[in-house]
Amino acid sequence: MEDETTKLTEKDLADAYPFLNRKVHEEHAKNYAPIVANLRNAIVRERYPLSIRDMVRLDLLLVEAYQNDEELTKARPAFEEAYALLSKEKSLPAKDAMELWGAVAFDADLLEDWNRAYEASDEAAYYAHRAGEDAKAIAWKKDQIALAWRFEENERPSKMPTYEELVLLFGKNNGTVLYESEKQVPSMLYDPVETNPFYPKVIDRVNERIKTYFAAYPEQFTEAKFQELKKKYLEEEGLLWNPPRKR
């Protein structure tokens, strides 16, 4: 019996990816998540020799496809794989690494994984600086500082970039401005329990229950009711959570 050959060809991918990227990323079209998922699964099943960079891009495209379909609770495995692959890949050009870490930071935000959003923002800022994209590097460093405020008060100092780091990356003027921004309390404060490593393991289940509830009782939808359900369902998962509050 002859060995099975890979069914996917380079031409298949060359044709499929740009089309799916346009539909999902540019047009935000719905109902493409199953197609992207099938392509990703075929690549894994057939062990197609896709580069780490391209596999990360495909994983992140699947996350966005699920977002378009309003089914983000299904996106976690693809996001987890993208994060793991990118964390191990050290040979990418700085601009590619910047773009991918920026996309990971965005998706981590969508999935309420604040630890990884913090880490990805840090990586995106670093690679943006290496790529000579200082405006983007500063923007991501600002995101990292904002995310540091989500942690417990005793953890926060170690999460804030140091003055020396900021000056080294951005020069004295920009570094000093960023360092001073660390002292500005955000207008909205979030419960630090959201940075508990257990939180992203249960939040998909919680959000799915909330979605199911409002599908059954759409007339009850308000921000207050959403927060009430989130608090209740998180407590049932073992986490005591309080809604965001203005300072």
Kindly describe this structure.
With 247 residues, this protein is an all-alpha fold. Helices cover 66% and strands 2% of the residues. The protein contains eleven helices and two strands. It has helices at residues 10-26, 33-45, 52-68, 76-88, 94-110, 114-130, 134-148, 156-159, 163-181, 199-216, 223-236; strands at 188-189, 245-246. The protein has a two-stranded antiparallel sheet with strand order 1-2. The longest helix has 19 residues, at 163-181. The chain is flat, with a radius of gyration of 20 Å. The termini are far apart.
Oligomer: single chain
- Which value, in Å, is the CA radius of gyration? 20 Å
How would you sum up the global shape?
flat
Mean pLDDT: 94
Topology:
Layout lengths: L9 H17 L6 H13 L6 H17 L7 H13 L5 H17 L3 H17 L3 H15 L7 H4 L3 H19 L6 E2 L9 H18 L6 H14 L8 E2 L1
Antiparallel strand pairs: 1-2
Annotation keywords:
247 residues; 2 strands; mainly alpha; flat; 11 helices; single chain; two-stranded antiparallel ribbon
